[in-house]
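User: Watch each token:
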Amino acid sequence: MAAYSKEFILTELFCDANGEVTMKGIVDLVFQLVANQEYDWPYEHKLRGYNWIVLSHHFACQSRPRLGDKVRLETGIIEVNRFFVYRYYHFYNSDGQVVIKGQSQFSLMDLEARKIVRIPDQFQAENSGLKAERPYRFKKNLGEPDLSSEARVQYTEIDANQHVNNSVYLNWVINQVAGTFLASRAVQAFDISYDHELGLGQAYQLASRIEEQEDSAQTWHQVLSGETSCARIHVDWLSRDGN
């Protein structure tokens, strides 16, 4: 399957108060790109009664595009095995330079049984022969958090799959971190692992741990429903003075 690309203009929907594309905006853009590609797939690649579910993302930013910028996004399949598909993403600026690179891991779910199933042969045939990078290895538990909050899932956070939309977790992380921290730090890279669904009205806890250095920082975040881990997020930050 050939690489697929499309141009986007960055509107306020994808950017923060500083005018920079957000983590949520990056994920929303790549999902729009993948959806557009799937509409163009041949009939034999369109699976009725099944849905692709994302298990993890990794993104690294050389620089962050800004409000009003035109960016070209490109995606393609790197590796396919019996149960996982790995996709890459490149964000190109107007000069044709790659400013953001990313990768996602997907599986295929039987919607009626709500179980992950084997990837059909026609997709396994799309294997590029390359090896994808393996997802970030999160610890099972975050440990003692520096910040913690509790809330319930709101109606506007649910998507058509009847669970919290994948990119919403990244907004929760941003809202958890202090405004002064965000004013002095910019996202350099982030990873997210999706562990378990959250539904409408469900209570959850967000625990965060922060490690700061002079010109950089790392934060780890875990979304929990009781003892069940729903998502884990890791963010690398750089000082804005160091960009």
Notes: The mean pLDDT is 89. The chain has four helices and eleven strands.
